[in-house]
């Protein structure tokens, strides 16, 4: 195996997870490059979500190590990893219902710079001023400008998903783990979110993207890893994955939209 590269954001080595007799992950290794979108695909039960929970620190693997930006984080709690900037979006979906979208975004930006935040801080004029450009930029990139003055209750499902991901980005993550961000969205909402990921995140923050929507995966990804039955079947550039007969046979040929 190659040594940890200075440019790898996340490096997983030989991760094994057993649930009783089930081997959910069997010696999985995967490297996420800085600034890239790396998709993790595979049929139901392949072990994708289990891998994400090992990365986030929610599940301790039976064997294996995880490094982030070269540092071994294998023994750190989920909270410590989150504080280091390893961000799994669903953990951050607590929206403040009494605040507008613009204020919710502002709160995430303020929290990034001052973790010991008091509730009154967001209403300080100087915080609003300091983060004004960033808030407006996020509203544009995540297509939320039209709803900026609304409360979360007024949002559609798709708007809400984009807001949650915008807020995750606003906290200044080192790595984003997105587990099926398009699940349950209409075609139009899915397209809007793909555009937001492309315009708002891609190339700035490395993303591990788990997604069943193959159009989105091939459109967004710089690299793809295919998992089947807890093992890595193939890993590489999207064109190589698309052309692989092994991958076709095991997975992609079953996908309607491939
Ligand atoms: N908490 C658990 N206890 C027992 N078995 C589990 C548990 N979580 C997952 N598994 C099993 O581990 C395997 C991998 O599941 P996992 O949820 O990681 O798959 P996945 O690739 O995310 O699938 P999907 O595409 O359906 O989300 C499956 O066989 C699943 O039944
Ligand atoms: Mg899953």
UniProtKB/TrEMBL annotation:
Domain ABC transporter stretches: 10-254
One annotated GO molecular function: ATP binding
Cross-referenced Gene3D superfamilies: P-loop containing nucleotide triphosphate hydrolases (3.40.50.300)
CDD domains xrefs: ABC_Mj1267_LivG_branched
Record keyword Cell inner membrane present: no
Keywords assigned by UniProt, alphabetized: ATP-binding, Nucleotide-binding, Transport
PANTHER family: ABC TRANSPORTER ATP-BINDING PROTEIN, CONSERVED COMPONENT OF ABC TRANSPORTER FOR NATURAL AMINO ACIDS-RELATED
Protein name: ABC transporter ATP-binding protein
Organism: Tabrizicola soli
